[in-house]
UniProtKB/TrEMBL annotation, chain A:
It is found in: Cell membrane; Cytoplasmic vesicle membrane. Keywords: Autophagy, Cell membrane, Cytoplasmic vesicle, GTP-binding, Lipoprotein, Membrane, Methylation, Nucleotide-binding, Prenylation. Pfam families: Ras (PF00071). One of its GO terms (molecular function) is GTPase activity. It comes from Megalurothrips usitatus. CDD domains: Rab39. PROSITE patterns: RAB, RAS, RHO. One of its GO terms (biological process) is autophagy. This is Ras-related protein Rab-39B. It is a lipid-anchor. InterPro entries: P-loop_NTPase, Rab39, Rab_GTPases_membrane_traffic, Small_GTP-bd, Small_GTPase. Gene3D superfamilies: P-loop containing nucleotide triphosphate hydrolases. SUPFAM superfamilies: P-loop containing nucleoside triphosphate hydrolases. It comes from the Eukaryota.
From TrEMBL, chain B:
It comes from Megalurothrips usitatus. Keywords: Phosphoprotein. Coiled coil: none annotated. This is Protein FAM114A2. Residues 77-92 have a biased composition (Basic residues). Pfam families: DUF719 (PF05334).
Length: 219, 618
């Protein structure tokens, strides 16, 4: 159960081909566990975790785990809109999953508009490569190069060992928070990408105070 | 070397004698005789009992000096000897040495040097002038020549460079002064000797003077050794090294011995005196031994005491600490107790606040992901609605009318039947078995690949909790028949409230959990229905209505059962201890949240309509 006291709620969405390990990544991030076997996600599933950004502000991450299966593609499109960040997940032992990343990225951009989402490129199943259980199909340099051209971070992870999992989510969270501080993002009616925590007294006022001047200076 | 030195001694002795003789002609024969007596025994041992070597100077001073000023003259002599240090020839130095320590000169020269070195040390711990009796002064005078020379000699040997620079320039002058000083002293001595000349004539008087000096030497030694030891003990505070202690004692005894000889020498003419001397000597040495042994005992006692103190110190400290804390203890513990009580109250308040937050239906519903599923479902439904509107825009004429008719029909099918089912609901429809059976049928009809096992599991959990709680009140009622209520009023007061709260909390949680699971189920089903290739709109509508009905029945059933349990528990508990307003409030709250929960389900079912509509028109 997530501690009800938090300053902001960010909605992040995980997208990527099926069986790249989105659900496992989230399971590790929220439960610290790795499930050897997991059913394919039906439509969308939800996870939540509290995380603290650098200045100690508590962020509740509402994580939308979308189904990667092609048949759900039409449905999952519906869920993009209210996300502030998107993790582009691929399997480093599966080249096609990496090659679909631009598609996923474009889709997310289109559906999250007018908001500019925070992206992160996440390569999963690092443990398989390290164990030599499966050959690596995407060299780290290649993925890093792709991430660099889009000015997004690239993190290699393993939901089995937990390697890089925290870093991946933390980098996105910090970036979203930094954009709030810079005034690019703000709490808006009719958009649930960023919400203020409802349990802390005065939380809304505080956030509005912080967001309002930034917005005016921006416009 | 020893021979040459002894030769030097002889000549030196003559010189000294001359110096003294010049000052006191009346004493010259006596002192000379003493000198003669000492001189033939250069090789004799320094064993105390043998009436051997005594200096003429010592003899003179012992017989004459009741001069209190002699003490005052001591520093003068020391100064003088310092000033003389370099100009004086070796012969003179040796003379003084010989004169000061004849017993040593007769024996080993090394010993002599040692004892001389030791002597100034002894002087260092001498009793302060105020404590010195006239009789003691006499004995002090005995040592005078010796000590003076020893000091001087030491100064010569130990600090030549130190003195050199300062004294070289004024050396001649100082030499003169020194010689004058010596003359002065000898003058004093001669004066005192003159004073004693009459006494000297009388053997009794000499005897008495001898007795006096002997006794005084004993006293002085005792006091000396006492002061030495005591100062040593004082300075060491129980940490005096036993060896050092022994040394000091030996020193004292040595000093005693050396002075002891003085009376013998001066009265060597009388054999009875010798006997007396021996006796006295024995007494003295015995006394010294007693004193020293006594001091040893004292010292060991002191040491032991210190040891015991040091050994027992940690324990003692602990005890002391304990004793000192004792009065503070109740205060401290009270303070701690108060702090604990305060923190407990705060914790309770915090826990209560947290509990209230936890039993807040919306929050629980959110935590169980019901809210987000509903939100997502809404998004999905909105997407479907948008698609329908798009289709509607394209259509026109008869197809549009037909299309609209279908949409309205579906809407009606979903709404009306639902309301009818609500009216029909009864208690049995909420049981897990019925819910499971009906859901299985619905899912089978819908032909969507999704399990409703999660929903069933939630139902079973709630039923299991209710089952355990229903057993608990029976135990309580049995207990109530006993007389424990009278004894444990306080616990009884707390317990039922907690129990009621627990039931209320669990009711809300169960409702939230089930509603969330139901919404999730609706959402997933809708997704899968949307993805279906072929649609049986009629069946879909029926299924949604049935599903809504079953779930709402279940919610009502759960609310009713929890409320029942709550009132039953409240009735079983003594009415005085239960605020029935609270119980009613809890029951009302449960039904309120149940209706809230039902409205969520109805919302979900309404969200289903565009999905079905979209499927129908595709």
């Amino acid at each position: 159960m997530v501690d009800p006291i938090f300053d902001y709620q960010f909605r992040l969405i995980l997208i990527g081909d099926s069986t790249v390990g989105k659900s496992s990544l989230l399971k590790y991030f929220t439960d610290g566990k790795f499930a050897e076997l997991s059913d394919p996600t039906v439509g969308v599933d939800f996870f939540a975790r509290l995380i603290e950004v650098n200045d100690g502000v508590r962020i509740k991450l509402q994580l939308w785990d979308t189904a990667g299966q092609e048949k759900f593609r039409s449905i999952t499109k519906s869920y993009y809109r209210n996300s502030v960040g998107a993790l582009l997940v691929f399997d480093i032992t599966n080249r096609s999953s990496f090659e679909h990343i631009p598609r996923w990225m474009a889709e997310a951009k289109r559906h999250i508009e007018p908001h500019r989402p925070v992206f992160a490129l996440v390569g999963c199943k690092l443990d398989l490569v390290q164990n030599n259980a499966k050959p690596r199909e995407i060299p780290e340099e290649e993925a890093a190069q792709f991430a660099q051209t889009h000015s997004i971070p690239y993190i290699e992870t393993s939901a089995r060992t937990g390697h890089g999992v925290e870093v991946a989510f933390r980098s996105v969270t910090q970036e979203v928070y930094d954009r709030i501080l810079s005034g690019e993002y703000s709490v808006e009616d009719g958009w649930d990408g960023i919400k203020t925590g409802f349990s802390r007294p005065g939380g809304i006022d505080f956030s509005l105070e912080e967001a309002e001047p930034a917005r005016t200076s921006c416009c | 070397m020893a021979n040459s030195e002894s030769e030097d001694f002889e000549s030196a002795d003559e010189e000294v004698v001359k110096v003294y003789a010049g000052g006191s002609p009346t004493h010259r024969p006596t002192s000379l005789g003493a000198e003669e007596m000492s001189l033939p025994k250069p090789s004799s041992t320094k064993i105390p009992p043998t009436p051997s070597s005594a200096t003429p100077a010592a003899a003179i001073s012992s017989s004459k000096s009741f001069n209190p000023e002699s003490l005052g003259a001591k520093p003068k002599l020391l100064q003088k000897s310092k000033s003389k240090s370099h100009s004086k020839h070796r012969n003179h130095r040796d003379t003084l040495e010989l004169a000061g320590s004849p017993p040593m000169s007769t024996s080993n020269l090394n010993n002599q040097e040692e004892s001389q070195r030791r002597r100034p040390g002894k002087l260092g711990v001498k009793i302060p002038p105020t404590n010195i009796l006239p009789s003691e002064i006499a004995s002090e005078n005995n040592k005078f020549p010796g000590t003076t020379k020893a000091t001087w000699r030491e100064n010569v040997s130990e600090t030549p460079t130190e003195n050199q620079d300062s004294h070289n320039s004024i050396q001649p002058l100082l030499d003169k002064l020194a010689s004058l000083d010596v003359v002065d002293v000898s003058g004093e001595v001669s004066a005192s000797l003159l004073h004693n000349s009459e006494v000297d004539k009388n053997t009794w008087s000499s005897w008495s003077s001898w007795m006096m000096s002997g006794a005084s030497s004993v006293t002085s030694h005792v006091s000396q050794s006492l002061s030495t030891v005591s100062s040593a003990i004082e300075s060491g505070l129980g940490a005096v090294d036993p060896e050092e202690m022994a040394k000091l004692t030996v020193q004292a005894v040595c000093g005693l011995d050396s002075k002891e000889e003085v009376p013998y020498e001066s009265d060597h003419t009388s054999s009875s005196f010798n006997v007396m001397g021996n006796v006295l000597k024995f007494v003295e040495s015995t006394g010294g031994m007693i004193v020293s042994s006594g001091l040893n005992t004292l010292e060991s006692l002191g040491k032991k005491t210190m040891d015991v103190l040091q050994e027992g110190d940690p324990g003692l400290r602990k005890k002391c600490a304990m004793f000192f804390r004792e009065p503070d203890k109740p205060n401290l513990s009270q303070v701690l107790k108060e702090a604990r009580v305060r923190s407990e109250i705060e914790d309770k308040a915090r826990a209560k606040a947290k509990q209230e937050a936890q039993i807040h239906f919306e929050m629980l519903f959110d935590d169980y992901k019901g809210m987000v599923h509903l939100e997502a479902f809404e998004m999905l439904s909105n997407t479907c609605q948008l698609k329908l509107e798009e289709k509607l825009r394209i259509l026109s004429g008869t197809p549009l009318v037909e299309f609209q008719r279908i949409l309205i029909q579906i809407r009606e099918q979903c709404d009306i039947q639902e309301d009818e089912d609500e009216d029909e609901e009864d208690y049995d429809r909420g049981s897990v078995e019925v819910v499971e059976r009906e859901l299985t049928t619905i899912m089978h009809n819908l032909m969507v690949p999704i399990s409703h096992s999660k929903l069933i599991r939630v139902c079973e959990d709630a039923d299991a909790w209710l089952a355990t709680m229903r057993c608990a009140p029976d135990e309580d009622s049995q207990n109530e028949n006993d007389d424990w209520i009278d004894e444990d009023d306080v616990t009884d007061d707390v317990d039922p409230k907690c129990k009621l709260q627990d039931i209320h909390q669990e009711a809300i949680r169960s409702l939230a959990k089930f509603t969330a699971a139901a919404v999730e189920h609706f959402h997933k089903t809708a997704q899968l229905v949307l993805l279906k290739e072929e649609h049986n709109t009629q069946l879909e509508c029926q299924s949604v209505v049935m599903m809504t009905s079953v779930i709402c029945s279940r919610i009502s059933s759960v609310a009713a059962r929890f409320s029942e349990l709550l009132s039953a528990t409240a009735n079983l508990i003594d009415s005085a201890l239960v605020d029935h307003n609270d119980v009613n409030l809890h029951i009302t709250n449960i039904f309120f949240e149940a209706s809230n929960s039902g409205s969520y389900i109805q919302d979900a079912s309404l969200l289903f309509i565009p999905v079905i509509q979209l499927g129908a028109v595709q």
